[in-house]
Each structure stands twice: as C-alpha cells, then as structure tokens.
Amino acid sequence: MVRPLSLALLAASVSNIHIPQLATTIAINLPPNSNDINFYMTAPTYYSYVAFGFGSGMANSFMLIAYPAADGKHVTVSPRLGTGDTEPQFDSNYHVRLNSNSTIYGSYIVASGTCVNCRSWPGGALNSNTNNQPMMYALGPAYAAHLASNNQGVTLQKHEAYGRFLMNTIQATGYGGTGVLTSIDNQVNTGTQPVNTYGANSPNGVVINDRDGLGLAHGIVLAVAVLVLAPMDIILGSGRLLASFPLIHAVCSLLYLLMLIAGLGTGIRASFEYVATKHFATAHQVLGFITFFMGLLLLGLGIALHVGRAMSSSGERGIVTVVHKWGTRFLWLLILIDGGLGLKLADASLGLVIGYSVLSGATFLAVVFALACLWCIGGRRTRTRDGAVADGGGGPVNFGFNGRKSVNSRKTSGDSEPVIIPENRHAR
Question: Helix, strand or coil for residue 227?
C-alpha cells in the first residue's frame, strides 16, 4: 500500500523520526554556517495540530506547531516558546518561511519550510554537534473542535499524544534541506531514537490519550452542581417544603457549595495550562469568581436563618429570608450562563454546546414550573383557610376600613349568633 507523501530519506543531512502508532513523521535539516532550521512534519488531519520541539521538557523549549489554515487547504506554522506545563506562547521574533508543498494532502497535514534564526531562544539553544539532542513531539486532541486559522497565536487545546526522542544533529547538518518528497511504503528512523521515560504502558516512548483531565473534571463537577444540586436546593428552599424538610435543604446546600469549591479548584489549576486563561481575565473566569463568592455569602445568610431568627417578631418574612431565597435563584441563573461561557472558552464542539443549552433550558423551565405549582398550592390553602374563617369557622371576622360593621368575638350566654355592633366612625 502506498503511503501519503513523506520525506525522501535520500541525503545524510537529514534526521527524522517516524511514529507508526500515530502515523506521524518529523524531520529536520541544519544548513551549515547558518542559524536556520529546515523542517518537515506530517500527521493525520484528525489530530487538530502536529508539533515538535527542542528540549527535554516544556520549560525553556522552542517549538514549531502546524495546523490547517483558515481556507482548510494551506498550513499555518507557529513558532512558540515553552515556559512549563502550560500552553506554549507564540513569539513574533521568529519567522517561518513555508515551502510550496505545505498543504492539506488528502487526510494528512504536511508542513515543510525554514525557521529563520531559530537555533537559540530565551533559556535554551540547539546543539548542532551532538548525537543526542533532546527533542519532543505532540499531537492535538483528535476530532476536537476544528482548528483552522491563519493566526499564529491561536489558542491550542492540550495535546492528546506526545513523546520524546534523541536526534543526531551531526547527521542532520549539511545541504539538501527537507523539500524533496516522494511516496514511500517503508519508513525508518534515521539519526533518531525514541526515549521511553513513561513506563511499560508507553511503547517506544509514546503517550496516547493524554487529554485535558482537569478541564474535563471542571466541567463535569460544575454540570452536576448546576443541573442537579442547584435545582434541588432551590425547590427544597421554597414554601412548605422548607418547613417540612429543613435538614435536607441544609445538606443539599452544603453539597452544592462543596461542588462549587471543587469546580473552582479544578478550574484554577486548569487555567494555568493555557495562555488565554492564566491571567484569569476572561469573562468565564471573572463571572466564576463572582458567583463563587456570592455562593459563600448566600450560604452565610442561610446559616443565619437556620440558627438564628428565621422570621421577624410579627411573623412576616424578614428581609434576610427574601435576599437568601431570591439571591440563590439569581445565582443559579448566573452559573448557568457561566457554563455556556466556559464551553465557548474551551472551544467545545457545537453538539456539546447545543446539548448543554437544551438541558439547561429544560432544567430552568422545570424549576420555574415546580416553584409556580408550590406557590399555587400554598395560595389555595391560604384562601381555603381564610374562606372557612369568613363562613363562621369560629374565628373573629373584621371588616376593615372598607366595611361598615364588625363582628364581636364575644357572645352572651344563650346567643346563637354574634352580636352586630354598628361601627362608630367618630370614635376613630
């Protein structure tokens, strides 16, 4: 079977590595008497990007990352600096000149070109006279939201697969470049060897399915909090249900807050992995902090209601009760909105965004319906009780300022009906 376009390993001035598990090939050529790096890389397009870098780890490394251009036919290559276990950041001080064969070829992305003056960078440099230059590669999440951009600084999701290898830069030094391509069936590594530092479960030093676990945990925890616990908490904190099940409401509120804390913690940790979020200035993050502190305040009000005076001395609802009840409902609405902002920030797929929107809307309407039913039931019971009193159920009836007479609750011994006393307006 003929494989897609790959590097023709015809010159000794090329070092390359082929990773069969990932159908990925990476190669470099180092022109003599130059600070340039000629490069070639290819990978299946179902990975959102393909990248390789110089260094043994993300910190103080230099990387070249290739992904489809906005037209879906050409390729964008972004030179970036690594600062640690976080998304590498684009550096405009480095210029990439692409060859004409850099394109989307069938189901493969092919990037070939020259990185000008790229052999040294802040915190590191390429050793062009060694047979064990530390290198690494990475592939973006498979079948993720489609990445197609001309922007070299576009936000990247965490890689799904990665590995390390050692490259012989002495062999890579010479004339010829990496522009000669051919269709070959057998591919071998020349001047490279994989470094297996990840244990027995990572053959040939390849780690696969290394997805963004923190971001996933952040989303799942908050989804459970906002779509399950919050509706239960709001319904249990309303009307007669609160009077009947105060302990259940308190436990549900506590679990709700604990889930918010867990979601905040995973969100903060995941934020450090991306350039766009590590400064905590996005709308999703700002609103997330606001809702978290609102939740703490409302929990404090709830505790005050439970251990203190929940009702005023006159039996009417106190202002603290009103603020707690309606503040909790408004908080829930804000968290629902913030969830949508989080999906947008994470470049979630359209299907996931639609699913969350539908589920959130349905849950919101269900809670509104439940609250309306509780309100109607409570109002009907109140009206039934008041009607029974008005019909002579034994309690005093006073026609207020609009009536002309009042019913005296006192009865004489032998009276079968209340005594009607004319109202004396002048007495007021």
Answer: helix
Phi, psi of 120 (to 5 degrees): -140, 150
Dist CA 302 CA 254 (whole Å): 10
- Do 295 and 360 lie in a common domain? yes
**Percentage of the chain with pLDDT > 70?**
74
Whether residues 163 and 267 fall in one domain: no
82 contacts 167 by C-beta, under 8 angstroms: no
Is 404 a member of any domain? no
Q: Which domain holds residue 361?
A: 213-377
- Contact 15/28 with Cβ under 8 angstroms? yes
The two three-digit tokens of residue 299, written as one number: 């929990």
Distance, CA of 320 to CA of 336 (rounded, Å): 24
**Contact assessment for residue 88 and residue 63, using Cβ atoms and an 8 Å cutoff:** yes
Q: Residue 186 sits in a domain of what CATH number?
A: 2.60.40.1210
Exposure b/e, 316-335, CB count within 10 A at least 16 = b: eebebbeebbebbbebbebb
How far apart CA 319 and CA 310 sit, in angstroms, is 10
Burial readout 3-26 (b: 16 or more C-beta within 10 A, e: otherwise): ebbbbebebebbbbbbbeebbbbb
Give pLDDT < 50 ranges for the chain.
Answer: 1-11, 180-186, 199-200, 310-316, 383, 386, 388-421, 423-428
Tell me what pLDDT residue 380 has.
54
Q: What pLDDT shows up at residue 384?
A: 55
pLDDT in the model for residue 357: 93
Cα torsion 144, 145, 146, 152 to 10°: value is -100
Q: Kindly state whether residues 174 and 241 are assigned to the same domain.
A: no
> Whole-structure pTM over 0.70, yes or no?
no
User: By C-alpha distance, which of 333, 365, 376, 384 is closest to 238?
Assistant: 376
Q: Are residues 290 and 146 in the same domain?
A: no
Widest CA span of the chain, in angstroms? 125
DSSP H helices, 282-349, are 283-307, 319-345
Choose among 281, 234, 284, 283: nearest CA to 264: 284
SS3 415: coil
